[in-house]
Amino acid sequence: MPQLRWLGHAAVELNVAGKKVIIDPFIKDNPSAPVKVDYAYDADVLVVTHDHYDHLGDAVEIMKNSTRPLLVATYDLELYLNEEHKIPWERMVPINVGGYVNLDGVKVALTQAVHSSRYSDPTGVVISGGGVTVYHAGDTGLFEGMKTIGDVFSPDYVLLPIGGRFTMDPAQASIAVEMLRPKKAAIPIHYNTWDLIKVDAKEFEELVRKRGFKAIVLSPGQSLEL
């Protein structure tokens, strides 16, 4: 059965269609991570939404210590990883915001995100496989295009940053839920890792409920059957 595990901050593990997918593998310097970096060595797919250190995270170390994962990111970010870190192109899947790419039963699409980054535009990501579709917003503020993402991809679950300051806060993220219309639930991420993004996830949960949707608040390391 498809499963999601929150690895703290914005790092998320999905097990769908027999594949282990890790999004934004920030583990080593993540104070809330319940695992060590080598936990990701057997991932089939790594997805990096943008190049900030708390999202690119340990992707380079993982790729250099394991021959198993394919890395999915924007072309420009992968160009940087190839030129600066010698990650070979045959180990990466260059895409950009657009339609799905099918990776042996796991479909991956990048979406718009409103944020900043150095080597490429920031993105969100949609993962679909095993009968479930999950949208991970990456780091983003609230933007009108979230309604289009909901219309096009019809996600079952949405993972939204709520920490404020660098991303949406709980109130804005609850508006995003209403725009995205997840069929199952919204899950908050990217909060309480440090004091600068300290918020009460229960506020998000309550605001989402008032808008007619369900929120599930996970603890780092906790899993959810999808």
TrEMBL record:
SUPFAM superfamilies: Metallo-hydrolase/oxidoreductase
Record has Hydrolase as a keyword: yes
Pfam families: Lactamase_B_2 (PF12706)
Domain Metallo-beta-lactamase positions: 8-190
Signal peptide from the UniProt entry: none
One annotated GO molecular function: hydrolase activity
Keywords for the protein's UniProt record, in alphabetical order: Hydrolase
InterPro entries, per the entry: Metallo-B-lactamas, RibonucZ/Hydroxyglut_hydro, UPF0173, UPF0173_UPF0282_UlaG_hydrolase
Domain of life of the native organism: Archaea
Transmembrane stretches, start-end: none
Protein family (similarity comment): Belongs to the UPF0173 family.
Alphabetical list of NCBIfam families matching this protein: PRK00685.1 (NF001911)
Protein name, UniProt field: UPF0173 metal-dependent hydrolase ASUL_00875
